[in-house]
Amino acid sequence: MTAPARTVFLGSGMFAVPILDALLRHPRVDLRAVVTAPPRPAGRRRKMIASAVGSHAATLGLSVLAPERLRAPEAIEAIERQAPALIVLADYGRMVPGALLDAPRHGALNLHPSLLPRHRGAAPIAAAILEGDRRTGVSLMRMDEGLDTGPLIAVREMELQGDEIAPVLEAALADMAADLLVRSLAAWLDGELSAVTQGGEGASLTRPLRRADGRLDPQRPAEVLERQVRAYQPWPGSFLETAAGRLIVWRSRVLGQDEVLSESLASDGPGVIVAAGQRPALVTAAGVLELVEVQPAGGQRMPGSALLLGRGTLVGSRVRDGTVG
Known about the structure:
The chain has 325 residues and is α/β, with parallel strands linked by helices. The chain has helices at 17-25, 52-59, 73-80, 98-102, 124-130, 166-189, 222-231, 257-263, 304-310; strands at residues 5-11, 29-35, 40-42, 47-49, 64-65, 86-90, 108-112, 120-121, 135-142, 152-159, 205-206, 239-242, 245-254, 273-276, 279-283, 288-296, 302-303, 319-320, 323-324. The chain has two domains: 5-205, Formyl transferase, N-terminal domain (Rossmann fold); 211-324, Rossmann fold (3-Layer(aba) Sandwich).
């Protein structure tokens, strides 16, 4: 009987948690260590919070390494001491040095939540929603020193319905990735699968999202802003700067042309908050965006209609470039 492969797993975010669980259950895997991002301060009290993978691994009693710099000699040595025959990575958030990629006999594998080479980089799930993709999926690749450029071992696709929000899509893709790994790993370890070089057609690169990316720009079409609201949850969120302060938008809807025309909602131009019946809406460069669920600064999430009951003066005010016009 073939001995299980000594394996080190690198992961940090929620996407990686089901993949870690799949490795633990796999009969061909001997998981020696989990490498994750170190705890970071979060919240108003700046309490140190472990990564999703770090917290989950600790509850399972696994050996956890959380180096500040993966390229530091001591971090590389700590991983090399595990003598891994295989490295598996998912949602780790850092580049892996070549010394670690080349050492394992079975290579270093990465599970990426996009149909590579489309949406390489840090924010593929948000990008798929924001760009209105009709399909997405997960890619299993053998890592090289590029950013998600390694040869592909297996790919699985799913259709998008056009109403997905990022956390729900992430969870679905994580489960898909875990299943893809389970179904592919034995064949890979036995040399029955080969890795195929990625093509260049359709290649794109996503960057890490920043807080400023969350501002809803009324100079963009309403349909793009509606996709942004779904794509940028929970980080960086989507928001407007209004006369009453920052307004986070959790759910939105593009009003139909008949609704816009019947109430003459677009007459004041992009950036004006209007009332669509008893509901707040934002006039954009193309179309009107209803603010279905919102959260005022310092307040709780609420229906947009409830917002107008207490802040009716927002109607007619203008937002632009992050400041009140």
